[in-house]
Structure formats: structure tokens, C-alpha cells
Amino acid sequence: MRRPLVAGNWKLHKTIAEAVALADELKEGIADVTDVDIVVAPVFTALAAVGKALEGSSIALAGQNCYPEAKGAFTGEVSPSLLKDAGCRYVIVGHSERRRIFTESDAFINLKVKAVTAEGLNAILCVGETLEERNDEKTFDILTDQIKNGLQGISAEMMRQVIIAYEPVWAIGTGRNATPAQAQEVHCFLRRLLGEICGANTADQLRILYGGSVKADNADELLSQRDIDGALVGGASLRAADFLPIVRHRLK
Ligand code: 13P
Question: Among 25, 150, 230, 241, which one has the highest count of C-beta atoms within 10 angstroms of its own C-beta?
Fold first, then answer.
């Protein structure tokens, strides 16, 4: 059985003090939760302080992005090893905001997945189609490219450190989530595709999260779908009152 995972992507929000205050609230709010993996991804500058605040809790820390090289003349970048040093166990790669705003390619994202897993960290690889692509009935083609290229050269062994997040671009920050049926259709497709790439057994173990306007009032319906193993939450992860009910929703 796949263990559910709920991750909060705090994006470009919160000072160190604000991030620590939220971490403290979450730590207290999930003290009795034992059946869900919980992850938060603060901005880089708050990672170490949030990591310290979360000591003694089961909440894990994630970087929102990384550069695939370990060190060198790469001004402004952060490597997986430095994220590990700051306390991270996960790194989000290929978020649609990075693909769109920072024009990251599948090939570049693939290097990140390799660098993250090589460092012993878990990569949360984000994929998703735009509204135009969905309307043009290209959703499955786009996702196939993103998955196949993003996971190029990743061994079945390394796949144990990979989590997929399906985040339809049209659902991110719009308040318009995919319906449970729409999301399940894609998750089922992704699991079959992953089975072709790394074998059905590995694909069966792989966690596929849904992201895009997940809120307390739609989490239960979305996450109770057969192939949806958790959520990657943006806006609703910024307040404990919004995030905790998502973590605590009735999981399958
Ligand atoms: P929202 O939950 O705000 O739609 O954001 C989703 C997301 O991008 C998480 O990575």
C-alpha cells in the first residue's frame, strides 16, 4: 500500500519568523498523525530555521528547486547537497512556474532529478498540461513527454526516490481544481506510463500526488481516488488552519 504524502509548497512567501511560526503550529497540529508523510517547502532563506523548528516532529523539509551541479561558479543557485545540509529530504523539481517563468526544459529538469536522487534525496517531479493543451486534447502527449524526458536514465532503483506530482497548470492558484474524475483519469494514465518505463511493480509503489487548488473542502474527494496518493498544496498550505484539515482528511 502506498503511504499518503501531503506537501505544502510555500512558494515565494513568508519571512523566516513567519515560516517558523507556521512550522510551530503545524508541528503541534500533526503531533498525533502517524499515517501520512508530511512535507513543507519554505523559501531557501527559511530552510535551516524551519528545519530546526521541526526537530522532533515527523514533518520533513523540502527545497522548492535546485541546480544540478554540486558546487562551482553558478551564481544564485543552490545544490542538492546544500539542501541536504540545510535539513531537506525532498526537492521539488520541474514545477510549472519554473517551466513557464524560468523556461526550464525537460532535459534540464532531468538533470535535477538525477542530481537530487544521487544525493540520496527524494525528488518531487511536477508535470502538468496547460488549459490550451487540454483543450487541444494534447494532455496525454504532453504528460508522456514530460515523464519520459524528465525520467530519462533514472534506474528502477532510483525511482524509489521519485514522487510524481500531477499539477494541471490551469488548476494552479485559480481556485478551479481538476474534478476527482479528471485527476483520477490522469493519475491512472501516469501509473500505466510509469509501468512501461520502470516496470509495473515499481509503478505500483510510486506515489503520484495531485496539485492545483487543493483545499480542505475538496481534499477528501480528490485524495480518496484510487491512484491519487496525496497532494501538493500551494495557497492552502500557507495557514495551519487551511493545511491541517488537508493533512487530516480521511485517507484511504
Ligand atoms: P495552489 O494550491 O495554490 O493551486 O498551488 C498548487 C501548486 O502549485 C503547488 O505546487
Answer: 230
